[in-house]
């Protein structure tokens, strides 16, 4: 009863025991990592369902989303809808600047048509016309500089009075860039008539 077993009896027992390293694991219970929390597992499932498996589908979805965003922005630029405007045009400060510029006659907006006229005059090989074109060119540039300086100072003053606590970085430069465009080509479209004060 208390005697030791012989070596022959022990040998077969060691051969029958399967090696634990070669044993197949159950795929339902993987080892070596903790079980994820329910919220993490749900978010992973949601991501897996929304993110397409292949790259082509993902790129197609991105293009469609970009196209719809651009279409919304174009409509907003035409109608002045604040919700879908680009970031550079959003906000009450930028809206006021647009209305302030659109309500005035600015010399800079006539720059392109005048430049075409002056260019045509300078191409005609008559000395008097070329002299007139040169003088006209100088007058236009001086008028644009003086008008832009006036708008700069008046707009800064108006913004300081109306929006004392709101950040106004780049608003005056935004207004001056708008004056360089012809009124009917401005985007977002003008919302006020000439002579109206915002």
Characterize the structure shown.
The chain is mainly alpha-helical and 198 residues long. It has a domain at 91-185. Helix content is 59%, strand content 0%. Helix 6 (127-162) packs antiparallel against helix 7. It is elongated and about 130 Å long.
Give me some keywords for this one.
single chain, 198 residues, mainly alpha, elongated
Can you summarize this structure?
With 198 residues, this protein is an all-alpha fold. 59% of the residues lie in helices and 0% in strands.
Measured by DSSP, the beta-strand proportion falls in: under 5%
Total helices: the number is 7
Give the % helix: 55-70%
Whole-angstrom Rg: 37 Å
Separation, N- and C-terminal Cα atoms? 110 Å
Multimerization status = single chain
H-E order: HHHHHHH
Low-confidence stretches: none
- Give the CA-based shape: elongated
Mean pLDDT across all residues, rounded? 83
Number of strands: 0
**What kind of sheet is the major sheet?**
none
Instruction: Please state the structural category.
Output: mainly alpha
């Amino acid at each position: 009863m208390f005697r030791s077993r012989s070596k022959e009896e022990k040998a077969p027992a060691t051969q029958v025991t399967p090696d634990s390293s070669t044993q197949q694991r159950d795929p339902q219970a993987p080892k070596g990592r903790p079980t994820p929390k329910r919220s993490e597992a749900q978010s992973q499932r949601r991501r897996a369902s929304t993110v397409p498996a292949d790259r082509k589908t993902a790129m197609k979805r991105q293009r469609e989303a970009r196209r719809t965003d651009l279409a919304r922005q174009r409509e907003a630029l035409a109608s002045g809808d604040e919700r879908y405007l680009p970031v550079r045009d959003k906000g009450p400060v930028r809206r006021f600047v647009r209305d302030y510029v659109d309500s005035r006659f600015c010399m800079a907006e006539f720059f392109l048509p005048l430049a075409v006229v002056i260019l045509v005059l300078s191409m005609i090989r008559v000395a008097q016309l070329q002299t007139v074109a040169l003088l006209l060119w100088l007058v236009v540039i001086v008028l644009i500089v003086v008008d832009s300086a006036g708008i700069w100072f008046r707009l800064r003053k108006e913004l300081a009075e109306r929006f004392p606590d709101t950040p106004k970085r780049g608003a005056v430069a935004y207004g001056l860039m708008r004056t360089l465009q012809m009124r009917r080509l401005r985007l977002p479209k003008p919302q006020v008539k000439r002579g109206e004060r915002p």
